[in-house]
Amino acid sequence: MSRTVAILATLDTKGAEVSWLREQLETLGSRALVLDLGVLGEPQTEADIPRAEVAREGGTPLETLRAEASREVSQPVMIAGATRILSQRVKAGEVHAVLGLGGFQGTGVGCSIMRALPYGLPKLMVSTAASGDTSSYVDVKDITMMFSVGDILGLNPFTRKLLANAAGAAHGMAQVDVPLETDTGERPLIGMTNLGVLTKGALEAVDYIHSKGYEVLVFHAIGSGGRAMEQMMKEGIIGAVFDYAMGEISDEVFGVLRAGGPERLTVAGELGLPQVIVPGGAEHLGILVPEGEVPAEWSDHAHVFHNPVIFVPRLEGPELERVAAEINARLSHTRGKAVMMLPELGTGSYASPGGELRDPESDAVFFKALEEGAPSTVQVERRPTHAEDPLFVRECVDRLIAMIEA
C-alpha cells in the first residue's frame, strides 16, 4: 500500500540526508513529502513544499525572515506554516506519517510541529538530543524519539544505516491501518488516572469497566499522564473520566515532581464530561532527590522512599487544606455530571490502615475541606473504607456509568 511520509528538515544543512531518506522510502514503496524548514543558506536538495511556501503559510514572507536573520523571529513562523500545511493534508488523508531530522534547533522545531498533529498519526524524530531528557520535546504527544548517535551532518556508512532504519520505521508505521476511534457517543472511551499506591484498585476498576462493556485508557498520573488525558478530552478521544489519582494537584501546589500544570482537573468540568473524582495519592508528595537523601525542609514529616530517588513526605492537616482548596478551585467551572468520592480510611496504600503514612487526623481535615469547599455542581460522597477497596472502586465505576447512560 503506497503511503506518504512527510519529512521535516532544513535542506541547507541536511540535503544529503533527506535525499537518502527519500530514496529509502521510495524503495520501500512509500512516497516522501519533503518540507524545507530552512531560512538562511541554499537548499541542497529539492523540496516538495519549499521554504517560501512554508513561511507564507506561517504568515510572513521568506524575504522578511531572511532580512531579520533571527531564529527567534523565523522559527515560530516556520512552525506555524508547516503545522498548517500538514494539518490540512493529514485531515485530507494525504499524509500518513511524519519523520523529522534535527539537532537542538531542528528537534525543537520538528517536535513543535508534531505536537500540534493528531494522536495516532505516526511521528518519528531522529535527533542528536534523543538520549537525554526529551520531555520538553515530546510533552504529552505520541512522538517516537530516535537517537542519531552521531551528528546529523553528512552521510557515512553508519548514518546511512541509521537513516535507512528510520525510513523503515516511518514506512512501517504509515502502513498500519488501525483507526483511532474517537466516538464519544453511547459508549465513550473512559480515561482513568492511577498511581502506584492505587494499582490494586486500578486493576479492579479496569476489569469492572470491561465487564460493563466499556473500554478504558489508564494514565500514570505523574504530571505528563494527567495532562495527556486532558488533551485527549479536548481532541474528542476520551468522553468520560474516572479521575482516581490526585497527586498531580498536591505536587502542583508545592512545586515538585508530579505537578500536573494549570489545566489539570479543569477540562472535564469545562467540557461537561461525566467524571468521578477520588483524591487518590493526594495525601503525599513525590520529590526527586539524590539517592536516599531526605530534604531538610521535609525532615520533620513522616515519610517513605517510593524508590531510591523519589522521596515521599506525608502532608499534614494545614497543608492538605491548601491542596483541597486548589482541587475545589479547579472544579469551580464544572457544569455538572461530577461526583467526588472520599474514602475515609485512606486515599492510597501509604495512607490506608497499616500503611507507612497513615494519619487519620490529617485525612479528616482534608476530607472536611474538600466537602465544605466543593462547588455546588460537584456531588460529594463519603464512604467508610479505603481507596483500593473493591466495593468502593466498583461503586465509583457504577456512578460514572450511570452518568454516561443517563
Topology:
Layout: E1 4-9, H1 15-28, E2 31-36, H2 51-57, H3 62-68, H4 71-91, E3 97-102, H5 104-115, E4 123-127, H6 135-138, E5 143-147, H7 157-175, E6 190-194, H8 199-211, E7 216-220, H9 224-234, E8 240-245, H10 247-254, H11 267-271, E9 275-280, E10 287-288, E11 303-307, E12 310-313, H12 317-330, E13 338-343, H13 360-373, E14 378-383, H14 390-405
Parallel strand pairs: 1-2, 1-3, 3-4, 4-5, 6-7, 6-8, 8-9, 9-13, 13-14
Antiparallel strand pairs: 10-12, 11-12
Helix pairs in contact: 1-7, 2-4, 4-5, 8-14, 12-13
Structural write-up:
Helices cover 41% and strands 18% of the residues. By secondary structure, the chain is α/β, with parallel strands linked by helices. It has 2 domains: 172 residues, Uncharacterised protein family UPF0261, NN domain (Rossmann fold); 216 residues, Rossmann fold. Strands 7-6-8-9-13-14 form a 6-stranded parallel beta sheet, sandwiched between helices. Strands 2-1-3-4-5 form a 5-stranded parallel beta sheet, with helices on both faces. Strand 3, helix 5 and strand 4 form a beta-alpha-beta unit. Helix 1 packs across helix 7, helix 2 packs across helix 4 and helix 8 packs across helix 14. The chain is elongated and about 70 Å long. The mean pLDDT is 96.
